[in-house]
Amino acid sequence: xxxxxxxxxxxxxxxxxxxxxxxxxxxxxxxxxxxxxxxxxxxxxxxxxxxxxxxxxxxxxxxxx
Length: 65
Known about the structure:
By secondary structure, this protein is α+β, with helices and mostly antiparallel strands. The protein is built from 1 helix and 4 strands.
């Protein structure tokens, strides 16, 4: 009788970059930025992150003459 390795039943989990909820890596939505990869549990968290990341850009444009 040969033994076969069992599949790993515990999926690797990562935290959402916004709400920090643990999500399986296979289910995470990914956004690849210039220097890093951000993971999100859904579109709502992605939208929140995107709005937060755009605020400094808008302030920089206002301060430039």
